[in-house]
Amino acid sequence: MFIQDFMLMSFEKPIQILVAEDDEDDKLLILKAFERTLPKEKVTCVEDGEALLKYLKRVAPYNDLLKYPRPDIILLDLNMPRVGGKEALAEIKRCEDLKSIPVIIFTTSSNLDDIQITYKMGSSSFITKPGSFEELVRVTEEIENYWSKTVLLPD
Amino acid sequence: MAKKEKPSIRQVKIYSIVTLILIVVGSAISYWTAGRIEFYTNAVMHTSEVLQRTNELYSSILERETNIRGYVITGNEQFLTNYRQSKINADVLLTQLQNLTLDNGVQQNNIEELRGLINARVRTFEATIAYFKEHGNLEGFLDPSKASNALNGYSMIKNVVLRINDVENNLFQERNQNLINNINALPFIVGLISLFSITIGLVTFFSIYQYNKAQIVADNDRIIFQEKLKDQINLLDESNKELEQFAYIASHDLQEPLRKITSFSDLLKEQYADKLEGDGELYLNRITAASIRMRRLITDLLEYSRAGKIENEQIKEVKLSKIISEMLEDVEVAIQDKSAKITLGNLPKVYGAETEYRQVFQNLISNSIKFSKPDTDPEISITAEEAGLDLVKKFPTLTREKKYHLIKVSDNGIGFNKEYADRIFSIFQRLHGKKDYEGTGIGLSITRKIIEKNGGVIFAESNPSEGATFNILLPFITT
Questions:
Q1: For residue B325, which of B363, B370, B362 has the smallest C-alpha distance?
Q2: Percent of chain B residues past pLDDT 70, beyond the cut
Q3: 0.85 surpassed by complex ipTM
Q4: Interface A:B, Cβ pairs < 8 A
Q5: Could you tell me if A26 lies within 8 Å of chain B, comparing CB atoms?
Q6: What are the pLDDT digits (tens) for A126-155?
Q7: Contact at CB, B266 and A134, closer than 8 angstroms
Q8: Confidence of residue A2 (pLDDT cuts 50, 70, 90)
Q9: Looking only at Cα atoms, what is the longest distance across chain A?
Q10: Which fold has domain B310-475?
Q11: Domain-embedded: residue A99
Q12: pLDDT > 90: percent of chain A
């Protein structure tokens, strides 16, 4: 753990990830998968689109910047109660100070229409949730690797 | 109303034809009667002319007699001139009479006799005139025998004239009666025929009315029936769509919890495998294996529900030989691996989507390779011919008027029992244990779905250990 942290620290500042996921099981699995490569506090979770928008706009209870830091990337589920993934995506891309945050669609769907629409709306990736934990770990590693090491993100 | 006989179109036709015939016959009879009336009118006029001429003739003879007498008594030349004129008159009348009665032999004889008698009288007149001119009187010319001759001559002329008149009068009577008969019969005949025609016409009209009424009822029934049928078809289409939607959604939503089962059992195995005791690890492995199989079933079900749902723009003429050759190139390694020998005959073009036909033949070939005999290299042949009408007739979903290709995919594999020939096309139906042959049994059901969507049928023939033949019937491309 120490070595891992040290290595990350020594190269790059680890990226901050915000996950919008209503399903408790999926949330747990995603957190567990990210734990392999990232410190716990680097991944935060909200349970639906409404909470996501409140978080990003720093509306209570998300006004504590230390506890709820601005994310570098967002993992967004499509099927969520209240404000769904697509509505949240549209809102994010409408807000001037939010639209630069890359949004990765992370969903069970592999529907061609969903893929088409979300890319058109400004999402950065479309990932279908993998079938096994092993696969999930591979995907989270790739996400973390790509967005923290391969690409440069806006400030 | 319930038992009332519905007039057939045939009855209406017969009524119409009878009416038409009656009208024609009626017209013919009327025309014929009119002809008869004209004929008798002419005949009657003819008779009265003959009578008139006869009377004129008789008068002219009397006139001559009078003039002769006047002349011999007074010696006045004027009587002689009058006599000469009336003589010419009589000749003209005789000729006219003769011409008028050309058709009547009896009258011709009578007229001839009359002409003879008149000529005899004229000869006497001439002799009398000649004698008178010579002697200035008739003394010595007249004697009792001559007087009786003159009397006889007159009565004979009178008799003949009367006879002619009698004959003509009789004819006149007869013709007049006929004329009257015909004139009387005409309105009766015309009336009768008109009545008949009107009756039949009314019957026809009524029949047509009844027929139309029945027709309207039948049309309404048919429209109602058609609408019902349409509703039923719509309902069926809807329920089919719903079913497919259901399969899609079910399989899609089923994947969610399954993914979690797999993921958490992965996690459990990874982090706590060493802490599991006894059969714990075995059970965990069983859970994983069952989850994997279930995933396979679900993805297959998804694939099945999607099969045949190709967009219309992707449907075109498909060259089967090209599609199959390309597909075989793609799976060349697998074919070589199994030492399979695949031969292609002359294959037709059919309508459909390339991806679908590719899937069909890939399923059939992989099926044949999968169920090959363990000790024999698989040999598969794909051939095509035109399907016989007897074969087409066996399938109610096919159209008899259409032509069909019969495409055969035959192998030398393990085959199967005849009684399973239908079952192998049902979804998730398998003839062998999972241990012996992997797979969920979805391939052939997808194949059948695609073939049926393209207006065809597929059926299998086989006997155990004698290889299997899959027969596909697909319609010819019509221009």
A1: B362
A2: 97
A3: no
A4: 33
A5: yes
A6: 999 988 888 999 999 999 999 988 888 887
A7: yes
A8: low
A9: 44
A10: Heat Shock Protein 90 (3.30.565)
A11: yes
A12: 55
Residue bearing tokens 């349409």: B230
Residue A115: inside a domain: yes
Q: In B, which residues are within 8 Å of A30 by CB distance?
A: none
Measure in Å the smallest separation between the Cα of B244 and chain A Cα atoms: 16
Distance to chain B for A127, nearest Cα, Å = 15
Beta bridge partners of B212: none
Q: What pLDDT is recorded for position B183?
A: 79
Cβ of residue B260 closer than 8 Å to a chain A Cβ = yes
| Paired tokens of B144 | 């009792």
The pLDDT of residue A119: 96
Distance from the Cα of B258 to chain A's closest Cα (Å) equals 8
Look at residue B340 and give its three-state secondary structure.
Answer: coil
A1 versus B13: the higher-pLDDT residue is B13
Question: Which of A47-56, A116-125, B167-176 has the least mean pLDDT?
Answer: B167-176
Query: Is position A53 within any domain?
Result: yes
Q: Which one has a higher pLDDT value, B252 or A22?
A: A22
Distance separating alpha carbons of residues A75 and A88, to the nearest angstrom: 12
Q: Which of A24, A29, A108, A132 to mutate to test the interface with B (most CBs of B within 10 A)?
A: A132
**Residues of chain A found within 8 Å of residue B252, distances taken between Cβ atoms:** 108
Where do we find the tokens 């036909």?
B357
Q: Which of residues 289-348 of B touch A (CB under 8 A)?
A: 295
Q: Is the pLDDT of residue B150 over 80?
A: no
**Domain containing residue A70: CATH number:** 3.40.50.2300
Task: Tell me the domain boundaries of chain B.
Answer: 9-212, 310-475
Tokens 């959604």, located at residue: B249
pLDDT digits (tens, 9 = 90+) for B211-249: 888 889 999 999 999 999 999 989 988 888 887 777 777
User: Which of B255, B259, B287 would you mutate first to test chain A, the one with the most A CBs within 10 A?
Assistant: B259
Backbone phi and psi for residue B418, each to the nearest 5 degrees, phi listed first: -45, -40
Cβ proximity of A72 and A18 under 8 Å: no
Put simply, whether A86 touches B (Cβ < 8 Å) is no
Say how far residue B5 (Cα) sits from the centre of its chain.
24
CB contact under 8 A, B259 and A129: yes
Tokens of B463: 């006997």
Structural domain range at position A72: 14-146
Q: Is A4 within the bounds of a domain?
A: no
Could you give the number of structural domains in chain A?
1
